[in-house]
Amino acid sequence: MNLLNAVPSILATPQKWNRHVYIRRKCRKVGAGLKETLFSKRGAHILKEMMIVQLQTIFNTEAPNKSTRIIGGECSGILNWNDIRMPHMYKLYKVLLLNHWIADEIPMSKDAQQFARMDSEEQRTFKINISLLAVLDSMQTMFVGDVKRYFTDSSLEAISAIIGQQEVVHNQSYSYVLSSIVSDQEQKEVFEYWKHDPVLLERNKFISDIYQNFRDDSNPQTFYEALVADLILEGIFFYSTFAFFYNLARDQKMMGTSQMISYIQRDENQHCYFFAEVFKQLLADYPELDTPANKEYAYRTINRAVELETNWAYYTLKEVKGIDLEELSDYIKYIANRRLNLMGMEKAYEGVDVNCMPWIKPFSDDALNATKTDFFEAKSRNYGKVGDDNGFDDL
Ligand code: ZN
Ligand code: ZN
Q1: Catalysed reaction per UniProt (predicted)?
Q2: For residues 106 and 114, is the Cβ–Cβ distance under 8 A?
Q3: CA of 114: how far to CAs of 174, 206, 255, 295, 322, in Å?
């Protein structure tokens, strides 16, 4: 029997030839024959080990500077922005840098006065939503760090470093908001909510289980699943919370907080763009992942995320004046369709093609500078301008 013809189907496709050569080499290294590796019980174990994506080598003079694949590929490790496999990533890199901001620049004294005048229900809604955001960004810092180690593309690794840094800034902003408006003791309580609140726990665990799976068993399949989870976290799971804070801003309340939320939304939009590009490139690099079962996984997982986000809105926002929950539920579907579009997939929901809540969007710098409230007198940032020209704000 020709051994190559008998190779399991995952290795048998022509594009898997390189992996086959890699496996032969690896077999020699562990002292196992190819036949044994492919067909014996011990071999199955060795094979599984080998399918785990290898970490990028730090110093590899044998490999080309331009990556051959985003994960599991070859790349020397040096970064030359003028010689990268996905040239549009250079533009994203510059946009991310231009959007730099830090929480301490935003004055919070008016927010502190207004928070003290809110009723206890409104205060609780505010705090539980901050608690949600703090968990999402904490998880995200860890996930981006995990992904960064596996990229075999120096430009993607570099962008992950910046995105990871931005997630840390987001986390700092939540601590900064809380330290401005509540006592130390209350801050600590807010950072405990997520461990006990069943609704909050369910939606966070939904994502963390998928991220943990990628951390425990890093391979192209778990990476695919983790990218779907990423698009959900950054592209869907923030949105009823954004609605809550922008709704306060529409009443000129908690404007310092809303300014930070606006910066965070702008960052998250760009992160979505990045991970959607990575998602599409993963399918190009590993066409065997482009299966009906994986498509079904993406739709099923996103649909569950839409349910969880809608439940969250009904759970935390039902007493909030100015937010129509049916409208918000349509908006969540609308935003899910946008994410699917970004991932190169067909929309999942009909009848929600129009944005019914256009006020859920980052404030532009022009708007920030044009108004006269304290909020808009916040120190203007000199790094860059939010506008139509950077191309990533309205994803
Ligand atoms: Zn973030
Ligand atoms: Zn993010």
Answers
A1: a 2'-deoxyribonucleoside 5'-diphosphate + [thioredoxin]-disulfide + H2O = a ribonucleoside 5'-diphosphate + [thioredoxin]-dithiol
A2: no
A3: 17, 34, 10, 47, 18
Q: What is the pTM of this model?
A: 0.83
Q: How confident is the model at residue 56 (pLDDT cuts 50, 70, 90)?
A: confident
CA 271–ligand 1 middle distance (angstroms) = 8
From the CA of 235, how far away is ligand 2's center (Å)?
A: 9
Q: Which domains does the chain have, with CATH numbers?
A: 3-51 (no CATH), 88-390 (1.10.620.20)
The residue among 46 and 118 whose pLDDT is bigger is 118
Closest CA relative to residue 137, chosen from 99, 107, 175 = 175
Taking only the tens place, the pLDDT of each residue in 223-266 is: 999 999 999 999 999 999 999 999 999 999 999 999 999 999 99
Q: How far is the CA of 169 from the centre of ligand 1 (A)?
A: 8
Instruction: Give the closest ligand to the alpha carbon of residue 143.
Output: 2
Neighbours of ion ligand 2 (CB under 5 A): 234, 268, 271
Q: Give 186-198 as a DSSP string.
A: HHHHHHHHHHH-H
235 alpha carbon – ligand 1 mean position (Å): 10
